[in-house]
Fold this protein.
Amino acid sequence: MAGGSCDFGVVVTTGDEFAVQTTGLTIFQNRKTVVPIPGWGLSDLIFARTRAAVPAGASVLRIPYNSAKFPPRDESKDTLKDRLFRDPNAELAGYMREAVKGTNCRHYIQILNAISPIGSSSYTVRGFGILNQDVVLGRRIFLHALAFIRIFDGRDFAIVRQSSALINLDHSLAVQRFLGKLVGGPYRELPAESFPTRPEDAASNPALRDGVRAMLAESLDKTLPLLLGRRPAARPSDIEQR
C-alpha cells in the first residue's frame, strides 16, 4: 500500500532492546547494560495490538522504521537558549514526516519507548528492562514495559492525541506516583533471583520475555482504544518519552 492511501499508518520505534539496570545509594552501584532482544518479537506484538485496536473496516499500513535515518540528538547543543526557542511539536512533526515518507495515510500512530523516574530519585528507566534497586535493607527487582503512543494527523502531522500505554487507567501518573508507585507505567516486582547474573543472559530468559510481552499487550489493549476514540479519551499523561 506504500504510495497509496490508508486510514492508519503504524510506525514502531521502540527498538529490540532490553535494559539490565542497577541503582544504589552511590554512583559506584549504578550500572546499565542494553541487551539486544530481536527474538522477543516486541515490534510484531505492538503492531498486532495496534491493528486490533483500530476501528473495524479501517485500513492499516505497517511502515518500516530505519533508526539510522535519525541520528541521536547532540545533547551538548541543548543550551538554555535552544530550549527556550525550540518548537518540540514542529520537531516531532518533521521527524514523523520523514519516517513515513512515500506513504499517504489519514493518521499515523507511533509507538515509542517511554521514560519514567524511579520513585523520587534522579534515576530513570526507559522502555523494556529489569531494575535491581540495591538499597540498605536489601535489593528489590522490578520488570518494566514502558511504551508511549502518539497519533498524528496525516495532513499536517500535528499531534492529535498522545499518552503513555497504561494498565491502571483510574489515576493519572502524577497521582500514581503520589500514591507510592515506583515507576510511571507497567511494572511488576520479581523475586531477587530473577535478576540476570550476566546481562546478556536476559535475552534468553523466557520468564522476562513473557512478562514484558504480557504487560506491553495489556497496556496497549487498554490505552489504544481510548486514544482512537472507541471509548472516552484518556487523561493526558505526564510521563516522558523518547
Q: What stands out?
A: The radius of gyration is 18 Å. The mean pLDDT is 85.
